[in-house]
């Protein structure tokens, strides 16, 4: 039963993220300011989570919040949420929703790389699991390079039969020019997306440590949303001086804030605590599959062969790293079990 709950949770998480990539790209295409978007998203999530936290935790004493823990949560919010969301917003303006979903497959590999740097993971290149992990990182780098520097033929899936036409153009050549940015702009988008994933991976790695010192998942999520709201407001003030850009309505800003930030952050914390980060990471390719289906068949997004090829390399890199990690954990369990059996035999002989 617990296994089914975890599986259902990760499917919901990845489906929401896929929808977020598509709807966010659509919002930016119609002129919404990326930094204001992030602020409203975080503010909506905070307003959604605050009363829920109060209701469920009103009879429970909150964990003590020392200055050092507060600083940790503040920095976690700054780099893992505010910076990541602002950078990915700019990256989506330069690229496409499918690219955002494809590069999300680098997240587990980057997380593994950062975990090695923080000495939370070990790599032994003399063993097959270690070799598979290194191969995964190399495939991931190759995938990013392929997406950035190689486009290839255009895959115009149901281009004239999609459900929603956001470009309002009947001319095929004009539609292609509108959707496919120039090479320099595309490369900027790819590497900004990669930078966003690096900050997000940092959030995943460090959140586990913060949860040990502040174990309330719901309260931690709410505080991160609140701090990120303040941080993103300051950023938005610096980059959005036009009052018209701040006009608020019941639109995608609020919906994405509540659903993506409020719900998925809590679900992710629950899955990581119960099943570990590897279980969550294994379902990351679902984002790419769902996003491509929505983008191509509903919005008529033009996808390049290079993006598909690079995405496949990214997925391959992801599973090589996960495969290596799984084999390594299995060997460690066998080693511990073998040691315990030896101790039992010695005890019986004694």
Which helices and strands appear, and what pairs or packs with what?
Blueprint: H1 2-29, H2 34-57, H3 67-94, H4 97-103, H5 106-117, H6 128-149, E1 154-155, H7 172-179, H8 183-213, H9 217-239, H10 252-275, H11 277-282, H12 285-297, E2 303-304, H13 305-349
Antiparallel strand pairs: 1-2
Helix pairs in contact: 1-4, 1-10, 1-12, 2-9, 2-10, 3-8, 3-9, 4-12, 4-13, 5-6, 5-8, 5-13, 6-8, 6-13, 9-10
Number of helices: 13
What percentage of amino acids are in beta strands? Answer: under 5%
The total beta strand count reads: 2
The first-to-last residue Cα distance is 43 Å
State Rg. Answer: 22 Å
Structure description:
The structure is a single chain. The chain is mostly helical. Helices cover 77% and strands 1% of the residues. The chain contains 13 helices and 2 strands. It has a two-stranded antiparallel ribbon. Helix 2 packs across helix 10, helix 4 packs antiparallel against helix 12 and helix 6 packs antiparallel against helix 8. The longest helix has 45 residues. The radius of gyration is 22 Å and the shape is globular.
